[in-house]
Amino acid sequence: MAEFIGLDWERQHLIGLDAQTAKGRVRVRQCFRMAWPEELASDPAATGQWLKRELAKLGVKAKQVVVSLPREEAVVRQLDVPDVPDSELPELVRLQAETKSASSLDRLVLDFLPLPKSTEAPGRQVLLVTIPREKVDRLKGVIDAAGLELVSIGISPVGAAEIIARTDRTQAASGETTLVVARTGKRVEISLVRQNQLLFTHSTQLHGEDDESDSRAALAEIRRTLGAQARVDAAMNVARVRIIGSEDENSSLRRLLEEQLECVVLAIDPLVDAPVSVDASDGSHRHSAYAGPLGMLLAQQGPLVPAIDFLHPRQPIVRRDLRKAKIAAAAAAAVLVVGGLAFNTWWSVRGLNERIAVSEAESQRISKALEDGKAGIEAAVVVDDWNRRTVDPLARLVDVAAALPGNERLFLTRYALVAASGTGAPRIDGVGLARERQDVQKLTDDLRARDYGVLTPTIGAEAADKDYPWKMELRLNLPVEPPAVTPPTGQRTVRGGR
User: Fold this and answer.
1) Is the separation of the CB atoms in 472 and 485 below 8 Å?
2) pTM of the model
């Protein structure tokens, strides 16, 4: 059995597990919690010596360490990239990250998760995760000074997703989405998982005066998260909610979620429900705090959920270069031929061989330079082509809003931007109500005047609203080049629903 120390590395304290792993299970010998010594905060070496002494007092003898960082320590963003093989993603993601990041990549450590491909989008998406390189260097300095071996650095939402994958095997084959909520003290982390894949993760700090007010604040943040994600993921259908922690840790939050969300809400205790045996646990601390490191320990025997690892991030696949071997074989053959020549031609052949060797060396140098830059050039071409064909959805929606009449004659009850697929154009689908049929026809004429491809709208009587008896359904094909936006001359009326 392999021995590990699993750590949840928070700013104020350190939560850990002294554990053994074997055959997809973890045996926890003891759980512990330590407050960081503030006087040593600026000295990684001294902090490492302190950690070494504290672990010795607890009788911890394991040397290998996995570290789970809280979600709030990392920057997570979703990137759209062209549809390329996984082997080409590291170079392409790094190129995209350089254009999106406010900081130089030399000051960051990044890794990413490829997201499932969508049949409705022409490209694909990845979840980019970055942390400051300074934080990683300091963490490594503390671990080295403690005489320990750092194996992996991850983030807690991935560890929690690993626990969900091992406690609920049905979701791996389901197309439905699982909402995972992990609350530790004032820290709450909200994640979405589908088919053993982390799709989205967000964190916030709670500032309520008691558990009930914190639970209500967490519920509001969860509802905002689901609403925002639903706008970018049309396939999202939250069918189950899993709260990380023991039954009594988040009882008020669980009650509120059951009241607000129409799905099953269950508490998952990492130290009870996961494939774990516990010799001694710390009953004074929330079990949810152990989810990150415990999930990483379970993954040591083979992960079920793709992981983030800042110590070993995804790298481009290095292809074996056989050119040198071919050149060496060709040179050996040339030597054999030259050896059979008459002695009176040897001097001239030697001179020719020297010039050939110089030419081959120069050829190898040029070929290597071209090969080294090939991946970056190809990625830049693909990204440039991708960006050239991208339509700005916000500009389109603003332009459509400008075409609406500045009165109460007509309004939209629902609209959505549908991304382009293949060679098809992107479009906007909308549903609205109007006072008279000619109001719909006027809107259609205005949109066509703005170069939108307006399919003949479906217009019918709507008895449910006597003031707006005419219901319409619009489908607008968007032009590739954005039309000129005419500033609105009056107040536009856009209603979210009846």
Assistant:
1) no
2) 0.65
